[in-house]
Amino acid sequence: MPTAAPDGARRRRIGVFGGTFDPPHIGHVRVAGEVADALSLDQVWWVPAGTPPHKQDETVSPASIRREMTAAAAAKDPRFVVSDVEVDRAGPSYTVDTLRRLRTLMPEADFFLILGADQLRTFATGWRSPDEVLRLSTLVLVDRQGDSAMEAAPDVPGIERAVRVAVTRVDVSSSQVRAWVAAGRDASALVPPGVCSIILREGLYTG
Q: Could you tell me how far CA 15 lies from the centroid of its own chain?
C-alpha cells in the first residue's frame, strides 16, 4: 500500500540504485526496470559512485565518464534518473551520506535501496552506519534466478523488514565487459548501445 503524506497525497516511491557502473551493462538495466515494475516505483535514481570506498586501490574510470555511461544506460526508460550526488561529493562515496542527502532533497519521498547478493554480503560489517541506512530506506533484495540476496546474509539485523524482488537472471558483469574489451572481443551485446559508443570513443579497458 502506498504511504500517505501528511496532506493526504501519496508519497513518491524512489528506488536508489548505486554502483561503480564501470561500465553499466544490460543486467543493470534489467534489474532497475523489473524492480520499478514490481514495487510500482515512480523513479529509479541511478547513483554512480564518485570514489568507491571499496575500490580505492583499484583503477577505476573517471567519474565523469562513468556518469556519462550511466546516463546512456538509463536513457530509454522515463522512470530512470541519474543523480550526481556522489560524483559531485568529495571523498569516498558512502551510501549513508547519499541517503541523508536524498532525504534532504526529497523529504516527501520514500526511498528503496536496491541491493544484490554481493552487496548484502558486506552490508553488516563493511558498510558505514548500516543501522542508519536501514532507517533512511527500505532495502530491496534482488533475487536473481539461482542467486538469492537473502541467503547471502540471512543474519543482517533488520533484514526481516527488507523487500525481496525476483528478477530475470542476466549473466553479465562489469568485469566481464572490461575483460572482453581488453581481449579485443566485441562486447556490444553486453551493454546498451550508448554505453558501447562511449567505451569505443574513450578507448576504455584496452590496456
A: 9
Rounded Cα gap, residues 172 and 122, in angstroms: 21
pLDDT bucket at 2, cuts 50 / 70 / 90: very low
Using CA atoms, how far apart are residues 16 and 1, in angstroms rounded to an integer?
A: 19
What's the CA gap between 112 and 94, in Å, rounded? 16
Question: The whole model's pTM is what?
Answer: 0.90
Quick one: which of 16, 15, 11, 31 has its CA closest to 165?
Answer: 31
The model's pLDDT over 69-126, given as tens digits with 9 standing for 90+, comes to 999 999 999 999 999 999 999 888 899 999 999 999 999 999 999 998 888 888 888 8
Give the whole-angstrom CA distance, residue 72 versus residue 67: 9
Residue with cell 534532504: 104
- Paired residues of 44 in beta bridges: 15, 80
Contacts of the segment 153-156: beta carbons below 8 A, 24+ positions apart: 153/120, 153/121, 153/123, 153/124, 155/124, 156/120, 156/123, 156/124, 156/130
